Amino acid sequence: MKKIIILLCLGLVISCKSSLENQINKTEISQSEVKEHVAFLTSDALKGRNTGTPGIETAAKYIENVFKKNEIKPYFETYRDTFNVKDIVGYNIVGFIEGSDPKLKNEFVIIGAHYDHIGYAKTVDNDSIANGANDDASGTSAVLALAKYFSKTKSNKRSLIMALFSGEELGLKGSEHLATRLKAQNIDLYTMLNFEMIGVPFKDRDYEAFVSGYDLSNMAEVMNAQIGSNYLGRSDVAVKYNLFKRSDNFAFYEQFKSPCQTISSCDLSNYDYYHHVDDEADKLDYNHMANLVNKMIPAIEHICNSATKEIKMNNE
Questions:
Q1: pLDDT tens for residues 235-252?
Q2: CATH of 30-305 given 3.40.630.30, 3.40.630.10, 3.40.1050.10, 3.30.300.30
């Protein structure tokens, strides 16, 4: 009888372990998932996704469909946050995943990336379409994968805004518009995490990705504690080129003066195809990308769920 009970208990433990593993496997972000997003966004049919073109309209509809499929609500009346740059009409696509905590849900975390690119560049081997795989279909794929993850797991006590910007290549116009609009609503923004050019790894660093504006806050320290390694570091090259001010995090920093920074694994020193027609989907390392996004999950969950706002500006 004892043997039977022991065997039943062992079977229950194995079953629970298997169930947990299956749950983890279902929520872990795969190479194929990020690759699928990049493949669509970098198709020649989209003609380089320049803001105001039919190609970026196709990209916008694709992002909206990903949100709809995963039952992610629009933050505004629709997913589209419309702005104008002279005679060009642009759209940010903005989704919303409400936090589960009655109090903390009134605090917001923004996860963002830009889905536009420059359209065309100098012709090489009869190719003039600048498909923008690393810049920034890679970051867009991360945001879409994270949106799906949090829509399924509901593991955020604070509310999440999932924002895909256009007009970045026109001078951060989309993010400027959304940041100004959210500031006018007086939302309680805790932090903004922007994903920019995560498609290729570093080869000579003691970290895997960097946080732009590293010295401005303790963001890297807080996130690394959850990742369990020195995964996020300080890029001297990013400091040299002032990349903190050259991506969509900057508009939110200017409006809210809170920790709004970019996560990237490319500081222009480890990729030869910036604004080049050879910035193609086949140049990206999808194992690296999936690994990076999966490493971010426990850090973002901690940011969404900590009792207090642990990420702080260093001048506070």
A1: 999 999 999 999 999 999
A2: 3.40.630.10
